[in-house]
Amino acid sequence: MKLFLVGMTVAATLASAATAAAPAGSIEGRWSNPKGSVVVDVDRCGNSWCGTVVSASAKAKADAREGGTANLIGTRLMHGFVPDGRGGYKGKVFLPKRNMSAGGTIRVLSANTISVRGCAVAGVLCKEQNWRRVR
């Protein structure tokens, strides 16, 4: 009985350590904005993470063109994202409808949801969206 309890304690300790070491979720993968009009592939680019548009609706493409972004497909919407030391990531987001970059953050909410936030002026004029994993 004593050996069984020791074995259970070791197993519980190992399971706990594995759970603590495993990340809550990764920002790598394919993500869709809330409307489903844009899909971005987030992957490593050097020492950071970047997100490139891999598909977009006709309306999203037209809105981007009106803003000055001729080709939405292939455009990097997220770049230079690095861990912020608080469990999230910080970097830059590109706003194709405005043809401008802004400071941004990404937080993993679950394995299939991230929160993407961009602020045009240091914490002012911000927009936050929850993106869902599509692959």
Automatic annotation (TrEMBL):
PANTHER family noted in UniProt: BLL6627 PROTEIN, BLR1215 PROTEIN
Signal sequence interval, chain numbering: 1-20
Annotated source species: Sphingomonas rhizophila
Gene3D superfamilies tied to this protein: 2.40.128.520
Name used for this protein in its record: DUF2147 domain-containing protein
Ranges where the DUF2147 domain occurs: 29-133
Keywords linked to the UniProt accession: Signal
Pfam families per record: DUF2147 (PF09917)
